[in-house]
Write the structure tokens for this entry.
Amino acid sequence: AQTVTQSQPEMSVQEAETVTLSCTYDTSENNYYLFWYKQPPSRQMILVIRQEAYKQQNATENRFSVNFQKAAKSFSLKISDSQLGDTAMYFCARNDYKLSFGAGTTVTVRA
Amino acid sequence: AAGVIQSPRHLIKEKRETATLKCYPIPRHDTVYWYQQGPGQDPQFLISFYEKMQSDKGSIPDRFSAQQFSDYHSELNMSSLELGDSALYFCASSPASGGARETQYFGPGTRLLVL
């Protein structure tokens, strides 16, 4: 059973605009880690951002930020000032000694 | 900074042949994970090793085996290859400190094509 759900198969955004990717997950743990990975056409898996569940403050990495809602088990990714190089598949993942991934969201940034 | 190294990067095999994929983790990382990503799919966990011992097992076929060596590099051995084994195989590594939920860093992957 899928424990990480990404409900948006594809998203398109104009360059310099903002796009938000949604992710929900299941867990019975109280402490866990959540991640967003980016997979560009080269298919390299690149870590974008991580969130520790016991930290209430939302993680931020440059133009990437998350909205972590622990009670709702929601973990969305916001990409601000989108750039052409952000075009990629984005995977949400939960770590419980191994990574469980969502199905991914393809993000296309239009010039 | 050093990253995870995987070899070979590309591999073409015939059905029923064997293949060996190698993974060299980031220095001072002692935990290695293997994932399989089919076309258009998310990566699926196969197996992991911590301090040279198998730590977890996922949907790895019995035809596959893996091990971690004393220098922490790992090898994934695949026998009796089938067409459905064609996929991108990732190795990832993490430090054990901080618990097993540390961040996993991925190698570039090995693209296996079975003909």
Summary: The CA atoms of residues 24 and 37 of chain A lie 15 Å apart. Chain A touches chain B at residues 31-33, 35, 37, 43-47, 50, 91, 95-104 (CB under 8 Å). Chain A has one domain: 4-110. DSSP finds no helices and twelve strands in chain A.
